[in-house]
Structure formats: C-alpha cells, structure tokens
Sequence to fold (149 residues):
Amino acid sequence: MTTATKQTVETLAQEYCEKITEANAEWRKQVRFNLAKDNNHKCDLWYDENGNYTGEENPDYFTYIIGRKYLKVVAMEWKDDAQYGRINAAPAGYQAQTVHAFVDKKTGDVFLPASWNAPAKGARFNLFENKEELFQGVMNRPHGGYLYR
Fold:
C-alpha cells in the first residue's frame, strides 16, 4: 500500500466523519424543533431568549481512531460526571461512546461494527466506489441504519 492510498483513505474517512456529525446535528435540531412545536416546550438549554435555536454547549461529534487494520469511526460525547455530584468522577471532556463503523485502511471498505473491537463480516460500502450513495444514506439515516442490509 502506498502512502498516497493510505492518506486518501484517511481523508475520505475524515469526510465521512464530518458528514455523520453534520447529519446527527441536523437530526437533533429537527427533533428539538418538533418537540418545541408539538408540545409548546422550549428548553432553555437549546433556545435563546428570542426563541432561536442555539444548539448544545458541547455537541457530540464523530471521529476515527487509527488501528492496525481498520479506522474505527466513533461517536465522541461530552461527559462531566462531577456536575452530578459523583465522587470518583472522570475529568470532564469528550469520551468515545459508541462505534459507528469500521473502515478498512487498505481498501476503503466500510463495515458495520460487531463489537467495540471488531467489524461484522461483509463490507457494506466502499469509500472509493460508493461514496455518494454512502453519504446520502448518512444524511437520511444518521444513526447507522444505512449500514444494515
């Protein structure tokens, strides 16, 4: 494998993570908007005094962790256990919460996760061949439903 191919896979994986983050943020915004509209309830955390949506202070995002064979696409979530009065709380900050997908570093194949450490068998997409179809699936179903067969 050449360095150019490795760099290309990582660049595409980064673009994939950005698309998932964008789609997830849009989904959360829409859910909160519908909740406010349907129940006439606007949470002060999400809306300013004029009723405009402000978003979250520490929004979740997706990134990848480089492994031996795969790039692990994970959801990063803000945790601050000390604010709830927990004595042995971890320091506040982003922590990897769930695995969204695995990307093969050599071929660019995208796999559904079987566990935290391993992908399921059978590639679902390829970043080189099915990139537009994959990104369309992300925008329509940001929580990974597009990875199921």
Observations:
- The radius of gyration is 18 Å.
- DSSP finds two helices and five strands in the chain.
